[in-house]
Design a protein that fits this description.
The protein has 458 residues and is of the alpha+beta class. The protein is built from 17 helices and 20 strands.
Length: 458
């Protein structure tokens, strides 16, 4: 699939020669730092129906997202509802709580529909039974049950059933992609753990297992270290690298078949390891999640080109605000994970990770705000005239005179820390509209514009 790089003009940026030669095994490229027209990408995706980049959304409330009335989360509507990507649900998140650390964007500990939030009673295991929990601490979603109509339902199942009832959305689940190839993933993790032990550095383990979760659903950073022929996760002993790898997969299986996991819970260790985000990002590419309908097969050669829609944390809005994936420290960790996998597994090849900024679509107003569509088209005309490098400053000047003319809904998209609205306001269903000139913008221009909106309206 390397021809897509020629279409997008990114072959040099991904260091294709180094990937082909195996000199590098992971090279991320952020479209937001390049003058790639948005329309060029969208046309390329439309021409290859087998290629569909994942948009990694979270387990939680998608009803108002699918209805186009989710405020700052409408970029999901534009991408997933518009056919430019598909919702790949990542479930290793935590319920919203009175303290920091929970998922305030998708609010998985509640049900939100038409702007109204119903807080769910949440229960976790106390060692003998499931007990009601308060909201003092975020809880790891795979280990939580919600009380619905007087009975306990796995929180994962509750949201999965609601998502699957939404028409037009092809939800896929990250955990299913891993469990479908559980033997391969377990083998990979076993090798990585053995190599981490041989390296003798704590960071090598943190690149694979970032946290540990207790049976009561509370998560914290953890220390993994070798102990004889086995491993210690804090003070929990695992007799081998494979035993520890299988324990990592236990929490992944909890997202796929939570009822079976809860039935096993009394016999599981009281502390379970949680797969790191670094390893997760590598597996996005190695397990071909950009071809969601393709059966498992040999990897792309000479290297894998993985396109991925990332949002605020992953992609950010360069150059004003960078996401985590392209940080030097993250790239070092990603290569440390990918290097041995490429060396030892036929199923692994070097990776060109093309990061697509989902926030680009925050510039597309809802169909219920035609005045916003007209105003944004005027901004885009100015941006095209000014050139890519001037996008941020041009947008700041435009906002100085035009911001108050935009609808409160569009302005509210850029408020800091906001997620699916739960203010009780009734909003009509809508679809995001691409104003004239939107597809002619480059991703660099779009990121500069979004950054300006956040600076002024956040």
């Amino acid at each position: 699939m390397t021809h897509i790089l020629d279409t997008l003009g990114l072959r040099t940026a991904v260091e294709a020669d180094a990937l082909t030669a195996g000199a590098k095994t992971f090279v991320p490229v952020h479209a937001g730092t390049h003058d790639l027209p948005v329309g060029t990408l969208l046309d390329a995706l439309a021409e290859d129906p087998s290629l569909l980049p994942p948009r990694t959304g979270h387990l939680g409330n998608w009803e108002d997202i699918a209805a186009g009335r989710a405020g700052p989360m409408d970029f999901n509507t534009a991408i997933c509802g518009g056919g430019h990507g598909y919702p790949l649900i990542y479930g290793f998140t935590r319920t919203e709580a009175d303290t920091e650390g929970g998922d305030e964007a998708y609010q998985p500990g509640s049900l939100i529909d038409q702007g109204k939030r119903h807080v769910l009673p949440l229960h976790t295991w106390d060692g003998t039974r499931f007990v009601r929990r308060d909201r003092s601490a975020p809880l790891f979603c795979p280990l939580v049950q919600a009380e619905v109509d007087g009975r306990l339902v796995p929180l994962v199942d509750l949201h999965r059933q609601r998502m699957e009832a939404l028409p037009g959305y092809r939800f896929r689940h990250w955990a299913t992609a891993l469990t479908d190839r559980a033997e391969l993933v377990t083998d990979m993790l076993t090798l990585l753990l053995e190599q981490a032990a041989a390296q003798g550095r704590n960071q090598a383990f943190a690149e694979l297992i970032s946290q540990a979760v207790r049976a009561d659903g509370e998560v914290a950073r953890c220390r993994v270290r070798p102990e004889g022929s086995g491993y210690l996760l804090e003070d929990q002993h695992y007799p081998s690298a494979r035993a520890l790898a299988e324990a990592v997969m236990a929490t992944v299986h909890a997202l796929v078949d939570p009822a079976a996991f809860f039935a096993r819970l009394p016999g599981l260790p009281p502390l379970l390891p949680v797969m790191s985000l670094q390893l997760t990002n590598v597996l996005f590419a190695l397990l071909d999640m950009h071809h969601p309908d393709a059966p498992p097969g040999p990897p792309e050669r000479p290297f894998i080109t993985h396109l991925h829609w990332g949002a605020r944390a992953m992609a950010g809005c360069p150059p004003r605000r960078h996401g985590y994936l392209t940080r030097r420290s993250t790239v070092r960790s990603l290569r440390a994970v990918t290097d041995p996998l490429v060396e030892h597994f036929e199923a692994a090849r070097p990776v060109a990770f093309v990061l697509l900024p989902a926030q680009t679509f925050m510039l597309c107003p809802p169909s219920t705000s035609p005045r916003d569509v007209e105003l944004m088209a005027g901004l885009f005309a100015r941006l095209r005239a000014a050139g890519p490098a001037a996008a941020h400053e041009t947008t700041l000047r435009w906002l100085d005179g035009q911001a108050e003319l935009l609808s409160p809904y569009l302005r509210g998209r850029f408020a800091g820390g906001s997620g699916v609205p739960a203010d009780g306001a009734v909003r009509e269903p809508a679809v995001p509209v691409e104003p004239d000139g939107f597809r002619a913008l480059t991703f660099r221009q779009a990121c500069g514009a979004v950054a300006a909106f956040e600076e002024v309206l956040g």
